[in-house]
Amino acid sequence: MRLWTLATLCTASLLILSGCGAKAPVPKKDAVVDSTLPIVTLTKNGTIVDTNTIALEWAAIDDQRVEGVYIYRVELDAQAKGESKRDRGVKSDYYDTVNSRFSTHYLDEKVEPATRYGYYFKSYSANAESQKSEMTTITSLPQMESVVWIHSRQSMPRSAKIIWRPHENQKVKAYIVQRRTLQEERWSDIATVDGRLNAEFIDKNLKDNFTYIYRIRALTYDGIISKASQEVTVITKELPPEITQVVASTDLPKKIEINWKGSDIVDFLTYRVYRSTSINGSYEAIIDTKNNSYTDVIKEDGKEYFYRVSTIDRDKLESINSNHTALGRTLVKPATPSLMDAKQLNGTVKLSWVTTDSRAVSYIVQKRYSKSFLESSIEDFQNIKNNEFTDSEIEDGRTYFYKIFAVDANGIKSEPSIEITIKVNDKSAVKKPNSTVRKAPSNNVEKKFEQNNSVESNIAPAEDIVIPMQDF
Question: What does the alpha-carbon distance between residue 438 and residue 441 come to, in Å, rounded to a whole number?
């Protein structure tokens, strides 16, 4: 009998077995043994062995009484270890049925590598079974070795690179990459690299400064999986160190200066500055800079922001920044002056005030009045150095409104004081004020005039003089 290949045996078995639609019979409990039924005999080359399959071939059976063959299998290695069939959940040696006397091949696909199995057979008729055949012992092939060399690259940013030497077995079609961590005991299949000559895999989206363990298994065209390769360990790149010394100014006009200690990492790329209106709020990146300082220009006075700074390396890894926050603030407005006295005297209005803020270097008196039903005027008397002011440009019968502002050396103007209202009833008042911009020669005061043609028509009539003694 010529030696048949494993592929031929597999094909023949599948064709015959797939044609059997009915449920295959199983041995009867109290079966009658008929010694005249033919005993199944394996051919001379009737066994072909692989890692996870065993093919069997027996001599053709011509006895027309025979309906098929019962196949029995004994796991000899399990017996050698002292495991009983009951321990393994097996009630008998019966394994499978070939329900056609014309079939002479069987393929066992439930085989473990490097394991000893014993096979014997019985032919059966409608009412009886033959005597059992001699047991044939077969040892499956050992599991295929994996690749002989594997290597890993360390400290990659959020990734790991594994390389290996291609397998020498021409039947290998792919490689199964397995991974676990130090916290895990079970391996996970994370990728299949197709092609025997492919020898590289890059694992992405990994944790920073984290340890991963890898190994490789080879996969053949007929589904055989090799042993695991040697294990390799990879530690991903850690994040740049935190910026720990962040300070922000609180006394600069219209700006906040942020300073921090520079990073000394070799692959430094840039710093990134973040800003938020609250310490636990949403932070927005406002600048990338290579300097260890930044000036944030802000239009508002007394504006507060919280700042954080991170380091970014050339692999675009960014350090943690949430542990160190600095509060910055632009210079606040000067304190509001408090009006102390306001009176009408000899055709003039005299104002005096006090301030508690040493930053005030000058003052502004703002004068507002209605020229007609649809036209109003606002005049600012600036650069007043003293804490008093005299307005001689008033008209009899008009009502005037005054407010005081303090101004510091940076030109920052305070909030206005309480507005006072004065109704002129002195017949000696000037009949028509001069509305041009001029400097008062006595105190170097600058006067600015502003006209508004959309004056509000609901200004309430005021008493002659309203004098606020203190701002609240």
Answer: 9
CATH class belonging to 6-139: mainly beta
**Fold of the 150-235 domain:** Immunoglobulin-like (2.60.40)
Other C-beta atoms within 10 Å of 256: how many? 25
Dist CA 381 CA 46 (whole Å): 118
What are 361-408's pLDDT values in tens digits? 999 999 999 887 788 899 999 999 999 999 999 988 889 999 999 999
- Report the pLDDT averaged over residues 37-53: 93
- Does residue 467 have a pLDDT over 80? no
| Cα 300 from Cα 255, distance rounded (Å) | 9
Nearest CA among 470, 382, 392, 387 for reference residue 428: 392
In this prediction, residues 343-357 reach a mean pLDDT of: 91
What percent of the chain is predicted at pLDDT more than 70?
83
Task: Report the C-alpha gap between 187 and 176 in whole angstroms.
Answer: 11
6-34 pLDDT, tens digit each: 444 444 444 444 444 567 889 988 889 99
Centre a 10 Å sphere on the Cβ of residue 50 and count the other Cβ atoms it contains: 17
Position 218 scores a pLDDT of 97
**Architecture in CATH for domain 246-329:** Sandwich (2.60)
Nearest-5° Cα angle at 263, 262 to 267? 140
C-alpha 106/C-alpha 97 separation (Å) is 10
Buried-state track 84-118, b at ≥16 Cβ within 10 A, e below 16: eeeeeebeebebbbbbbbebbbbbbeebebebbbe
Structure tokens at 236: 């991903």
Same fold, 246-329 and 338-452: yes
Q: Give me the pLDDT at residue 425, please.
A: 78
Q: Where are the beta strands (DSSP E) in 114-245?
A: 116-124, 128-129, 136-139, 150-153, 159-164, 172-181, 188-194, 200-204, 211-220, 232-235
Residue 155 and residue 239: Cα distance in Å, rounded? 11
pTM of the complete model: 0.65
Domain 338-452: what homologous superfamily? Immunoglobulins (2.60.40.10)
Average pLDDT, the chain: 86
Domain ranges within the chain, ordered by starting residue = 6-139, 150-235, 246-329, 338-452
DSSP conformational letter for 339: E
Cα first-last separation, the chain: 117
Angle at 418 (CA atoms; ends 412, 424), nearest 5 degrees: 115
